[in-house]
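fyi for ur records
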Amino acid sequence: MNQDIVKRLDPLPPQSKLIIFGGGFSGQRIASVGRSLGVKVLCSRRQKDSKGADFTFNSDTELSNEIFEGATHVLSCIPPLFSGEDPVLLQLKNQLLNSKTLKWVGYLSTTGVYGDTKGEWVNENTSPNPQQKRSIRRLSCEKQWLETKLPVQILRLPGIYGPGRSAFDSLLNGTTKMIDKPGQVFSRIHVDDIAGSVLFLINLYSQGKNPMVVNIADNLPTNNLDVIAFAAKIAKTSLPSTVPFEIAKKTMSPMALSFWQENRKVDNKLLCNKLGYSLIYPDFKSGLKNCFSKLNIK
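which gave:
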């Protein structure tokens, strides 16, 4: 329910207008919560008949000035092009720079820019060291946004989950793989806390609390086996046999393998302790309970 998030947030300034580029899983949730806060939100999709498409945008799109008219906040959720260029800046940089009303620009990036730390903690002061090509491109886009000198805030996200995109999806359709890689952990964030954090940070920025980079992650990095086992317990379903990583990796796709090649814990103390955001789902257990409550199981 949006109200569970809204009641934790202060209203945005009157006449706020938020433009979201990229209406995927996170973008749509942010848009929905923003509207519940009374904000005018316009959200882009690639195709005009896509769910939640207020306007269309892709890497070769030119937008009318009407979209930007009166925009106070802009959020880009769109991944980099294979060239490493940012698609929003590639097409719309001048329109953004010429805006007289912009107060905040957010860019959703990835904690993948920190690279592999062998399970050690990373925070906003950790020097980026991306090893995956997609993370190298993300860091390039971060730099492109910061170089504009717009009021930019970089928001780095770990693994994203929520209703319709959680451990239950593979568990209940029988495709779950119990991969055992000792010492491997992943950080996560529930999509509701992405929406809550973004709108929380927008308000703080206007108050002069404006760190350039913020990690948005929950409190409990953990291994995948614990997550799947907890989901199975809630769903009262059995688990498949555990497979050692060295065996499982032989049949993994390059994308899947790349996730297992990096091991880090993402520190959220800046967001939660210093800035004061209160997580709705502080760990995977509370988050999975929410996801399960949204399943249509008779």
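The chain has a mean pLDDT of 94. thats all i got for now
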